[in-house]
TrEMBL record:
This is Cupin 2 conserved barrel domain-containing protein. InterPro entries: Flavonoid_dioxygenase-like, RmlC-like_jellyroll, RmlC_Cupin_sf. PANTHER family: LIGAND BINDING DOMAIN PROTEIN, PUTATIVE (AFU_ORTHOLOGUE AFUA_6G14370)-RELATED, QUERCETIN 2,3-DIOXYGENASE-RELATED. The lineage of its organism: unclassified sequences, metagenomes, ecological metagenomes. It comes from marine metagenome.
Length: 307
């Protein structure tokens, strides 16, 4: 097992015992139970949190957190880390951009200016490094989310990215609401290819089709086996259900006709689940007859690999 995978296993060993590859699935019912448990442990700052998985990156990147807020959060700003967020439950408002006042480390006292966006369960967000932001929660409400801390892209931005990013304020901020994703899913269903899939790029943040890319993929039949040497796949299942075949031995080339996986472990997956597929791990999406699975795929650079 590669050292980067060992760091994850140390944090989530009970989950990983069945699959030494490092694959982890947090299903929607587990996340709901975790949210309820966090609700009993809310601290004086009106929040409770836990670490789902951690690669041990000293920068704080490559960490999966689960956070519940029953009141407004303090302003945050991370210089070298992009926040990728999946809203699991509740609703609130994200204040993003502007100028952070009274900053000490990653936290501040207030934000002047900025833009406000309503957020609710099923939304996917991308908050770029260096951007002030705060979660605002209505009285008596809460918002709970999975936070994936992604190392900011370092390198030359490609002239023609794989797909245009949303034109929102502040620049670099990305948001795909659950309603928008439902509409995109319906549209993809009309464009399914002979291989049983349809896809589009939600945003490519400069790496030219490899890491730091957000994809939206619908499968109406089994997908070809895949393996990515330098990419971690973070998956938010948007609709449908199926089975993930993970691990084992890749026979043939990744994503090629006629390839297969020898061995591996199968996991049921469904809407609301969050998946972590490590780099260098064979995997394939299996779909029941007459069914489908649609998901947001976030391509994260592997720990120790290129950013």
């Amino acid at each position: 097992v590669a050292p980067s995978f060992l760091a994850v296993a140390l944090v989530v060993a009970p989950v990983l015992q069945a699959d030494p590859s490092g694959f982890v699935a947090w299903d929607s019912s587990e996340l709901e139970e975790r949210s309820l448990a966090l609700g009993t442990r809310v601290g004086p700052d009106d929040s409770a949190r836990e670490t789902l998985a951690d690669y041990g990156n000293p920068s704080g990147a490559h960490r999966f957190r689960f956070i519940r807020r029953d009141g407004d959060g303090r302003p945050e700003q991370h210089d070298n880390i992009d926040d990728v967020v999946y809203i699991q439950g509740g609703q609130g408002t994200l204040l993003v951009g502007g100028e952070m006042l009274g900053r000490r480390g990653d936290l501040g006292a207030a934000i002047t200016g900025g833009s406000q966006y309503p957020v609710r369960a099923g939304d996917v967000l991308r908050i770029p490094a260096g951007t002030p932001h705060a979660y605002l929660v209505p009285d008596g409400g809460h918002v709970t989310y999975v936070l994936v801390r992604v190392p900011a892209f370092v390198g030359e931005v490609v002239a023609a990215p794989d797909g245009p990013a949303p034109q929102l304020e502040p620049p670099g901020f990305g948001m795909w609401t659950s309603t928008e994703l439902d509409e995109r899913d319906t549209a993809l269903a009309t464009r399914v290819r002979p291989d049983g899939s349809a896809r589009e790029t939600l945003a490519d943040y400069g790496a030219g089709g490899s890491s730091h890319r957000f994809r939206f993929i619908r499968r109406d039949s089994d997908g070809r086996p895949e393996l990515h040497d330098d990419i971690i796949d973070v998956v938010f299942v948007q609709s449908g259900e199926g089975t993930m075949l993970v691990g084992g031995e890749m026979i043939g080339r990744s994503n090629a006709a006629g390839s297969a996986i020898n061995g591996g472990v199968r996991y049921p997956v469904a809407a609301g689940d969050v998946l972590h597929i490590p780099a260098r791990t064979p995997h394939s999406y299996l779909v029941p007859d007459g069914g489908h699975i649609t998901y947001v795929l976030v391509r994260v650079p592997a720990f120790g690999g290129p950013n």
